[in-house]
Structure formats: structure tokens, C-alpha cells
Amino acid sequence: MRSCNRPPRGREQCCVILLALGIAALAGTVVGLIGCTNEPFDPNSIINLPPVARIFITTVEGDSLNPTSYYRRKFHWSGSDQDGFVVRYFVSIETQHGIPAPWDTTTATDTTMTFTTDEEGHAEATIRVVCEDDRGALSDTASQYIPLRNFPPVINFQSDFDTLNWSYGAANFRLFAIDLDGNETMADSFLYKLETADTNLVFTYGEPGADPALGWIKQGFEDQETRTFSVDLHNLAPADQCSLTISVTDEAGADTRFLWDWEVREARGSVILVADASPYTDELYFNFMNDTFGVEQWSLYEILYTGLPDRTWVLVETLRQFEAVIWYTGGSSSQNLKGAAAALTQYLQPGTGDDAEPGKLLLISQKITGSETDLPLTFIQQVLGISPTAAPVNYFYVPTDRLALGLQPHLPDLASTSSFAGGTGVQLLTGSEAIYQLEFCRTCYGNRPPFDPYVGFRRPERTVDPLASLIALTLQLEYFDHDQVRASLLNLLAQEMGVTVP
Asked: What pTM did the predictor assign?
């Protein structure tokens, strides 16, 4: 048998050698043929596809302008080329219909423009873009028509302003203006007037004689960025309907008018009653005012329901229209009284340079001192003239067998008629004088002295001035004999304070 690994011999071997030589020769021939036909590559032999141009419109980054605003429109364009790349753009932006605009050559991909509106606040733009690729091919023209317009300013109340439905001769409004074209497109001032004004007259705010009842008042915005502003009105004439008009314009000629109507009440009588308690308590004081001044011949401020004015000066000017103020609260501490502390201080004690006459306040409020009061400490001590610590330390109820004794001949004693007749004892500071004191009772008002606490006082003392500017009672008078209470209130006003009463 022949081994499989034995090399071929003789004829068999010769055939193998000849076959190998033939294969080598053939391979050489093929290599020769390829080398002879390899010419340089010509790119122009391949068809160049044209690029494609695109357009899109946005606002400037960070702006919140309306997309169709005429102001600061930003035009973007782009191009793509599937067999190369875009090298430049040809852009035309037509701003008047039918009037061609020149073509600009650029490598930029955006531009920002502001347009001029017509008399109706309209504008328009037609943008056309062509792009060119690296082999000189041009795209089809991309075109887009954009209708534009001016958005007039908007005026509204600031979010924390309570709308005003009535006032007594003084009022304020806090507002803001906004423009969807950008606040910088608005004028840097606004106008306001009352309905009686001559629209041909324009006063600059603060100039002598400037009066919104006579003509427009031109006033700058308080904050040019946020366009917030205030309108302050003084010495308003009584009217069932008083009308305020505010005008804000923009650079495109739009004029936005904001109108507000409210009632300006007449300051009737010498006293204004500030109602800061429940209807049950109101009955006592309303009857007293009707009996003393006549039905509908006195002034009322229902502060429990309407709240304080937006600004301190409005309350001060409101109170100054009257010779005196009667302010009463219920059995709990009053947030309105707390909020009015600064205004009451100015009313009672005008500051340096303030030529107003000091006012007069008759305050009936149980929680003006003691642990449950929330009045400012300086108001308690320097204006009311009492210690912030009650005496006794807790409020109490006055038994029906104990009287609140008047400490002057013209002040009647007051008899409790209910177990709800609450009171608070006060400690007087220098300059204050007691005018009402409870009957002595060792077990009625607490287990510590005083057993005959003061529950009414005046300021200043009688030896300093026979007429008081401040009187305060810390009893819930609605739970005392109403006839006695009405007689006491009348004498407190007329004899202790010198208030004019019919």
C-alpha cells in the first residue's frame, strides 16, 4: 500500500508542477490588465443634488412676546445638502406687500428685526431664502409670509390690591401695565383723570394746581421694568358714582383706557362710627348714632366686612374728615385695630410738619391690654397710655350685681345685664386718668388684686387739659344697660371730649 504523505513522483509530479506554473502566469496576466485601466476619479461625473432651504420664526431667547408681535421678531433659516454641505445663504425680507426687497448674501442663520405698524397696528413680513452648496448648486426658494401686529398695553390691579367700591373723600389704586410686545414699547408714563376733567388739559404730577378733577395728570411709573404704579386721590367730592380713567400708550400708537367706578360717601356728622364687631353689637351703637345725630345723618365705616384701606394715609385722611371717631370691637382682639395702629397714631398725634389738628378717639375694646392683645407695644404705651399687662392679669366677667362706677358726676354708672358682660382691668401710665372703675368685689374679677379694677380711662389727664383726645373703655357695653350706655357715650363725647353733637 502507498503512504498518503509520500510526495508524487514521475509523470504525476510533472503534472503538478505544470499546473502551478499555469496558475501563476494567469494571475500575472490579471494584475497586468488591472494596472493598465485605472484612470483618476472625476467628481463631476456624479450628478450634484441641490440643497434644501428651510425657514422658521421665534421670539428672542428669554422674551415672552406674542409670536405675531411686530417687535423684535427673530427669523431663522437653515439648509441641508445630502451629497455635500451648504456654504452660504441668499436672504430677502420684504416688509411692504408687492415691493421686492434686495437679496443679501450671508453665512449667518438668523436675524432679528422690529417693524413699523400702520395706523391700525398691523405690519407684515415675507422672508425668502435660497442656499448654495459646495458645488455651486442652488436650492429652490423657501418663502414664508408672516402677518404681524401691535398688541396694546393691558392695565389691571396688582394682585394684592383689594378692589375699591366706596371711600370717604380719599382713595388709592395700585395697578400695573403689561405689553405683549415688550414693556419697553410702552411710554414711560401714564395719564389719569376723573370724569369732570377737561381732556385738553394735561398737568405734570406734583405741579401746583394739578387736579385730576380738572385735567389729565401725567405721572411716571414707579418701576419702569414691571410698570407698576399708584393713583392717589385726595379731597374727592361726594358722588354716587365717581369715575377714574387711566391711559397707557405704546410706541405704535395704541391707547389703552382703564375705567373704574366707585361711590364717594359724604362725611355726614361730626363723628364717624367704625363698626368692628358682630351685628348684635352694632344694634347698640347704631341706635345711639340715630338718636344723637338723626337717621342717615351720621357716617359709618363697617371695617369688619370691608377691611382696612390699602394704604395708611387713606385711613388717616378718612378719619380727619371728622371731629371724632368711635371705634368698637367685640370680645376678641381685632386684627383691624392692630392694622390701624399707625393710622390712629397719626390721627391722634400729627407729626412734625403735619398741620392737621389732632383727632379724637373713643375706643371701646376689651382686649387692648393683657395676654390676648396683639396691639403693638408702642401703641399701647405711648398712644393709649396704659401698661401692656392687665390688672388683674386675666380678663373677667362682670356679675349682674356689680356696677361700673362713673368717676365723674356726668358719667352714669353702668349695670351689667348679662353673664357675658366681659371686661379687662388696666394699669394707667403717667398722663392717663381713670373715668370708670368696677365696684369692689374680692371674688368677682379674680383671686388677686385689684378687686376694683379700672375699666375706663382718658388721656390726657383733666389737670393737663379739660378735654380728652382719647377715651377707652374695656367693657363689652352691649351686655350692659343700653339706656345707661347711651347716656354715658353722649357725655363722653360732649363733656369729656368736647365733640359737637346736636
From this structure: 0.81
